[in-house]
Design brief:
Length: 564
């Protein structure tokens, strides 16, 4: 009897020792910013895939989608969660439960296409598996091959050795490639050799990492990133660089002018600081929060001009219930807001740059046929609303209450707009005859103005059964929100759900995709509020799956295009 008691005690002692070893052997979290180059254009990290998956599983839209196709809403087997965390599970489960991820845009590559250049970002995904190399090597190879097939369709993959183990996969259709390497416990996947090499050099200490960026750490604290399941960051220098690429397009000029880009980057650098973003669960959906830092002297100069007002109920009768997207500008005096922005820009910039940015601000209304905002805006009353009635519309229309209809008519008639502008009084009937490039419709004390095709789409949507709307129940704006944007999220939700099932090896049939769309229709929209703070501009978006679904949908659409 004493022998068996001693044996049981020994076994219990061994079990306790093993359990303690496994428990304390769980990997700790590392700073993924230390795995990507310091000069990366864009940085994104996800520190817990299980937290992200739990957020999706608890998401009301996801539950509705799963129920519509009679599928389990659980994405991970809960029986493996704890065992996988301590390493006692199949390698795939171990990696999924332990891994941390970092996505970095390390550069831009120019690709000739006929007489033009196509700009392609060089992207790297870094995965710290917290798992030994011998366990992950074959699993990483199979995962990369599967990813290449999912993204590009039929692909040719080869393996090679050098300073590390590599897997190269190229599309059989157009040669687009994925490159992956396994170095210790880390897997690096990129769309170019340069992207993978950049991150490998950081890992080996021959290139500085983003962890040295003090502003990144500050933005993490500002947005409480430790409580979020993802965090994104763009440094001040790269914000200016990206702005210099995008601004010419907004100004109606072709990109690729080095002198213009240099001037824009220098000017933007005096005003714009870093941008950061977090995602976290919120009331059965996902909240994305963005902070766009401005030079400390700018917010106090522009904030007084952004005094807000609330949208009156009658404006909703001009917003079609089926609108693809619309934005309500709650600024009490739109002209004061525009002039404040212009004044703040002029304060920070030299004369030439100030003139250029002033031109950019003025051109922001040119797409609606408004060439001179200083003449038109005083004749409009807040709030202003921009509406895109259909996803196929080239642009949105501008809707505003008219303060002085007779004066507005005179000003619009004198606008020197290319293609001309035609004024329609809706009370006298709809008549879109002629070849005017822009239309201005006077309706029930409001004006609706924009490109002719876009205004025509607005009128068709407004006049359809159930076209006019009342203020929706979800529209409960914050008093300090300068803008509130609604956007239909149906396409992104459908693409995200389809991609998740495909990654699980359970692709949806066409009738199932239809069932998902019908089941999620009522919740498939995103609401974004923007406000001015002491640090700059803050934007908060509530949507079914957040920006994470954008990354997934981009991969899904790329796969679809390659397979056609």
């Amino acid at each position: 009897m004493k022998f068996f008691r001693a044996l049981l005690a020994l076994l219990a002692f061994i079990v306790i020792i093993v359990a303690c070893y496994l428990w304390w052997g769980r990997p700790g979290r590392v700073d993924m910013a230390g795995y990507v180059p310091a000069d990366s254009l864009v940085y994104l990290e996800v520190n817990s895939l299980t937290d992200l998956v739990k957020a999706i599983e608890q998401n009301q839209t996801w539950k509705s989608a799963a129920q519509s196709v009679n599928a389990d809403s659980k994405l991970l087997d809960p029986s493996w969660t704890w065992l996988a965390r301590i390493g006692v599970a199949p390698v795939k489960s171990v990696v999924l439960s332990r891994a941390q991820f970092a996505l970095a845009v390390v550069g831009m590559d120019s690709i000739p296409e006929g007489d033009t250049l196509r700009i392609r970002p060089e992207v790297a995904l870094v995965i710290e598996t917290h798992t030994s190399n011998w366990r992950i090597k074959s699993a990483a190879r199979d995962a990369v091959k599967g990813l290449a097939t999912h993204a590009y369709g039929q692909s040719n993959c080869t393996e090679r050795s050098g300073d590390a183990y590599y897997v190269d996969c190229a599309s059989s259709v157009n040669g687009r490639k994925l490159v992956a390497t396994v170095d210790g416990s880390v897997i690096i996947v990129g769309n170019t050799d340069n992207a993978v090499r950049a991150c490998l050099d950081v890992r080996r200490g021959s290139r500085p990492s983003m962890r040295t960026d003090v502003e990144l750490q500050h933005m993490r604290d500002q947005l409480n990133a430790n409580a979020a399941f993802s965090f994104g960051y763009v440094s001040a220098a790269n914000v200016a660089k990206i702005f210099s690429w995008a601004a010419p397009i907004l100004m109606g000029r072709a990109p690729g002018d080095p002198q213009l880009e240099q001037l824009l980057a220098k000017s933007a650098g005096k005003m714009l600081k870093s941008i950061a973003w977090t995602s976290r669960p919120s009331s059965g959906a996902i909240e994305d929060r963005y902070l766009i830092s401005l030079d400390s002297e700018l917010p106090p100069r522009i904030e007084p001009a952004f005094t807000t007002t609330t949208a009156s109920d009658d404006v909703w009768k001009q917003i079609p219930a089926s609108a693809e997207t619309f934005t309500v500008y709650q600024t009490r005096n739109p002209l004061d807001a525009l002039n404040a922005l212009n004044s703040a820009v002029s304060y920070k910039l030299d004369a030439l740059s100030a003139v250029m940015f002033s031109s950019l601000l003025r051109s922001s209304l040119a797409i609606y046929g408004v060439e001179n905002p200083n003449e038109v805006l005083p004749l409009l009353s807040a709030p202003l609303v921009t509406v895109r009635a259909k996803p196929t519309d080239e642009s949105s229309v501008l809707i505003a209450r008219v303060a002085d209809e007779a004066r507005l008519r005179t000003v619009l008639e004198n606008q020197k707009v290319e293609g001309g502008i035609r004024i329609i009084e809706l009370s006298k009937g709809w008549s879109n005859e002629g070849s005017a490039a822009f239309l201005a419709v006077l309706a029930e004390g409001y004006v609706v103005i924009g490109k002719a095709d876009s205004v025509d789409s607005w009128f068709s949507a407004r006049g359809s059964p159930g076209g006019k709307s009342d203020r929706p129940a979800w529209f409960q704006p914050s008093e300090n929100a300068v803008t509130i944007t609604y956007a239909s999220d149906s396409a992104r939700v459908a693409s995200f759900v389809s991609a998740l099932y495909q990654l699980q090896g359970k692709p949806l049939a066409e009738d199932q995709k239809g069932a998902v769309s019908n089941a999620t229709k009522s919740s498939s929209f995103a609401i974004t509020e923007s406000r001015v703070t002491n640090d700059g501009i803050e934007r908060t978006t509530h949507s079914p799956f957040g920006q994470i679904s954008t990354l997934m949908s981009l991969l899904q659409s790329d796969a679809s295009s390659e397979k056609r």
